[in-house]
Automatic annotation (TrEMBL), chains A, B:
Residues 21-64 form the Ribosomal RNA small subunit methyltransferase E PUA-like domain. CDD domains: RsmE-like. One of its GO terms (molecular function) is rRNA (uridine-N3-)-methyltransferase activity. Specifically methylates the N3 position of the uracil ring of uridine 1498 (m3U1498) in 16S rRNA. Acts on the fully assembled 30S ribosomal subunit. InterPro entries: Alpha/beta_knot_MTases, PUA-like_sf, RsmE, RsmE_MTase_dom, RsmE_PUA-like, tRNA_m1G_MTases_N. One of its GO terms (cellular component) is cytoplasm. It catalyses: uridine(1498) in 16S rRNA + S-adenosyl-L-methionine = N(3)-methyluridine(1498) in 16S rRNA + S-adenosyl-L-homocysteine + H(+). Its EC number is 2.1.1.193. This is Ribosomal RNA small subunit methyltransferase E. Belongs to the RNA methyltransferase RsmE family. It comes from Pontibaca methylaminivorans.
Length: 240, 240
């Protein structure tokens, strides 16, 4: 009865629901993992919780699973976005993986004045987020948004969403979050070179932004992303 | 006058102090970075703060730097150890890098019942810690200890040092740290498979240990290390 493989699927999940597999899923389950009819896996789709399912048909290019029973309720993350300036490939992958593990609701790559990346492979980053959710036992996969300039993101910022802005140079301790209320938030992590002076001035002037320090040492951007999500989850999220 | 290269050295640092370079340092500075006599670098040795230094002699197999002036005071991290069960190579490297960035005083790889690693490359991990300190602007390099069995480490645990033990199954929220006092601490992160039942029972019975939860999602061990150091620094370290 053990079912260690966890897969994110798009289909609705309900008892007896048949789930057709695409070629990639069939390759993974039947060629890589060598599952046979009757084998069991865990599924989630971000809406219906986690389900135990059974292999009904196994083929080279497709197959079918059948959902049997719900094994865990759907759990949504708190409403926190992680906005970050993409770095080199491996560290960008890392940030996306960690954001999914730590319960970010959305992941938004942003272009800043000192960001190197001109473009991202959104589909690849989305696959990283999905794999992280599969491996960490989550029932939710955060959406990875398209790369946007920071100025555009701030220009149509959603009403009521607050911003925790991680700044090395002018910021208060993370305990400032303790006086804040829960609700819709976003975390913004700058690129390796920090924010430019005009960016910093704009951020500090935003009424919905709080500048927060991440300690006396300089952190790499990937470390800062994990530390900031940890502090936010502890103060305002679902870790308390 | 800009000096972006930062190097950890073993020698004492004082005004006018000449510093002989070994072959590896000379190769890095003069062949890789193409520095010439008169070029400036920043140095630290973990005791005397950060110093501006000048290249006095540059050779293929050696050379000399001369310390000119102190540019930052020595800053020691709080007295917190990070104990962790080594993982696959890349994630172990990552934990060591992040521990140095986040201000761990010592890094102790431990063998647990479910640890895969039989041995570690201590010299390679120590080099990672040094590089992280060089890059993050620190003046201190945490020592990486030899791999030891967890039972042996707990068997001669230093008197007065408390232990934050990160456990998925039976633990209180991180806010339990808020009632604790500062001083000598260690953080213990388990391997991917968690602690064994006997290990968990022993840890929970230790009078100096506090079991702390890292939220409702399952975190990979490398994520857990960064999150735990963040929470500790925020509650009991030098981030407040």
């Amino acid at each position: 009865m053990s079912a260690k493989i966890r897969l994110h699927v798009e289909h609705p999940l309900a008892e007896g629901q048949p789930l057709p597999l695409d070629r990639e899923q069939a390759h993974y389950l039947f060629t890589v993992m060598r599952l046979e009819p009757g084998a069991r896996v865990l599924l989630f789709n971000g809406r219906d919780g986690e389900w135990l399912a059974e292999v009904s048909e196994a083929g080279r290019r497709g197959g079918t699973l059948t959902a049997l029973a719900r094994t865990a309720p759907q759990r949504m993350p708190p409403d926190v976005w992680l906005c970050f300036a993409p770095l080199k490939k491996a560290r960008t992958d890392f940030i996306v993986e960690k954001a999914a593990e730590l319960g970010a609701a959305r992941i938004l790559p942003v272009q800043t004045d000192f960001t190197n990346a001109e473009r991202i492979r959104r589909d690849r980053l989305q696959a990283h987020a999905r794999e992280a959710a599969e491996q960490c036992g989550g029932t939710y996969v955060p959406e990875v948004a398209e790369l946007r300039p920071l100025a555009a993101l701030l220009g149509d910022w959603p009403r009521g969403r607050r911003l925790m802005f991680c700044d090395e140079s002018r910021a208060g301790p993370a305990s400032v979050l303790e006086g804040e209320s829960r609700g819709a938030w976003a975390i913004l992590i700058g690129p390796e070179g920090g924010f430019s002076q005009p960016e910093r001035a704009r951020l500090l002037a935003l009424p919905f932004a709080r500048a927060v320090s991440l300690g006396p040492r300089i952190l790499r951007a990937d470390t800062a992303a994990v530390a900031a999500l940890t502090l936010w989850q502890q103060a305002l999220g679902d870790w308390a």
